[in-house]
Please model this.
Amino acid sequence: MSSLNIPQTCGVMLLPDCTLFPHGGLPLHIYEPRYREMLSDALHGSCFFAVARLLGKEKDDLKRCTAPMGTMGLVRASRELEDGTSNLLLHGVIRVRFTEWLDSPYPKARIEPVPSVFEPESQSRAALEALQEAAETVTRELPGEVRDALVAMTAQIDDPSILADVMAQQFLNKPDERQELLEMESAAARVAWICKKFESGAPQ
Model:
């Protein structure tokens, strides 16, 4: 991740009941003036901004209304429309902790990256197999072509921490559970949580 030069501060998009995981994709329509300014600054800079879950009504003190951890995203593609709004695809890169909210025309924070490493490494293969089995279970009722594509995608991932995040992005629906999983700093704990959640089939 150091090769990506993660900035120490970044703009933050506050979204209710929305959690982006690393290695996940989030399509966004940027229309609020403050976020249009944020996007412009990002595109003229590092192309990074973060997504944070908004907890209830937005307050002046953003610490009181946002989840403490979110995900830094990289703008993969952005298209500005004639009315000044933009459609873009944000690719999740790394978990971040919001350590200080800064004075800015748009939400902006000082951040602390939270890397994800699966330990112990000797159990990586077993963790991957357990996650792949969970993926087969949770996709069992999907149409054949969709199921085959998703299973093939998970089979290509050889890092259990990445696979856990991809599965959470694709298959986990409840906002509270998504945020709980995002904030688990132990990759092994996330793998165990997902396997237990999905072992009986599609999440409710």
User: Anything to note?
Assistant: The first helix runs from residue 33 to 43.
